[in-house]
Amino acid sequence: MPLPERFREYAEMVDQYLDRHLPGDNAPPEPIYRAMRYSLFAGGKRLRPVLCLAGAESLYGQAETMLPVGAAVEMIHTYSLIHDDLPAMDNDDFRRGKPTSHKAFGEAIAVLAGDALLTAGLETLSRADYDPAVRCRLIRLLTAAAGTEGMIGGQVLDMVNENKTLTRDQLDQLHAKKTGAILRFCTLSAPVVLGRGPEIEQIFLQYGSLLGLAFQITDDILDVVSTTEKLGKTAGKDEKEKKATYPSILGLEESRRTAGRLIDQACALISPHDPRSYLRDLALYVVERDH
Ligand code: IPE
Ligand code: IPE
Ligand code: MG
Ligand code: MG
Ligand code: MG
After folding, report:
1. Which of 57, 122, 129, 201 shows the greatest Cβ crowding within 10 Å of its Cβ?
2. Which among 154, 175, 189, 153 has a CA at the least distance from the CA of 73?
């Protein structure tokens, strides 16, 4: 299943915003912007920014309002992929259908392009035209989601648990940090920007938790059942690297059922706050996508 048509417009808005806010390929000091743009515009699904924009529409806000948040998250996500692919980490040769950053530019520039995207993401958010208290809160939430309590913490657990058998609880915690933290930030961001209050924030956060876990389970399933061509990244890597994944612990069928249950819960939870079913459709896309 491709990203539903109605969200393509959001993805394009994000692409245009990113393009406008980043210096061109040849801007000095070369080749840093070329490397940043190479990975950023290689063809990611843009799920994270789309969640930010769709969340605002669901709450009767303007999708455009969320562009600085969506752009910041996509830059940080792209940085995490560049570093995730490095030889010292997952050692992957393909990403988003192209050679990985270190294959195209060498390891030093790949490390720096990742660092630069992380920094540029936070800078983008720090310049956004929100009330200063909201801006400050968004930066705090995003740095927490990206840092040692969130994504980095999850990446550490992912690395140190290679070749180990985890309990399902431990694996849930790994996924909640590695992938869930940033996705939770995305779903939380719209009620924060629009000032909808703690009750709505809590519901959007919980929706993000359920969706985030289902997202990583699906990523793990696709690694087993899909092809390198479809995924745009090397299939079958998790088994090769002895990663702790849902399919390796529960098998494919139970993994699929679990992801489905999580998405059912996410849809039920969000439905009273999702008048156009945008967030329901995105939740279904998370488990039905083929890459
Ligand atoms: C891949 O994320 C990394 C994970 C957190 C599993 P995506 O599947 O969203 O990658 P892109 O952005 O579409 O390339
Ligand atoms: C990576 O998870 C999550 C990140 C924080 C980048 P994976 O290692 O499973 O992601 P892929 O499969 O390489 O995209
Ligand atoms: Mg990894
Ligand atoms: Mg990887
Ligand atoms: Mg994976």
Report:
1. 57
2. 189
User: At 69, which amino acid appears?
Assistant: V
Ligand number nearest CA of 158 is: 3
Residue indicated by tokens 């830059």: 75
Candidate from 178, 185, 223, 248 with most ligand 2 atoms within 8 A of CB, to mutate: 178
pLDDT tens across 193-227, in order?
999 999 999 999 999 999 999 999 999 999 999 99
2: left (phi over 0), alpha (psi -120 to 50) or beta: beta
Instruction: List pLDDT tens digits, range 18-71.
Output: 999 999 999 999 999 999 999 999 999 999 999 999 999 999 999 999 999 999
Q: Does residue 180 have its Cβ closer than 6 Å to ligand 2? A: no
User: What's the CA gap between 260 and 238, in Å, rounded?
Assistant: 21
pLDDT digits (tens, 9 = 90+) for 73-122: 999 999 999 999 999 999 999 999 999 999 999 999 999 999 999 999 99
State in Å: Cα 85 to ligand 5 middle: 10
User: CA 282 → CA 7, 11, 13, 68, 225, distances in Å?
Assistant: 9, 13, 17, 20, 22
**C-alpha span between 191 and 250 (Å, rounded):** 35
Mutate to test the pocket of ligand 2, among 149, 179, 183 (most ligand atoms within 8 A of CB): 179
Q: Is 100 in the pocket of ligand 2 (CB under 6 A)?
A: no
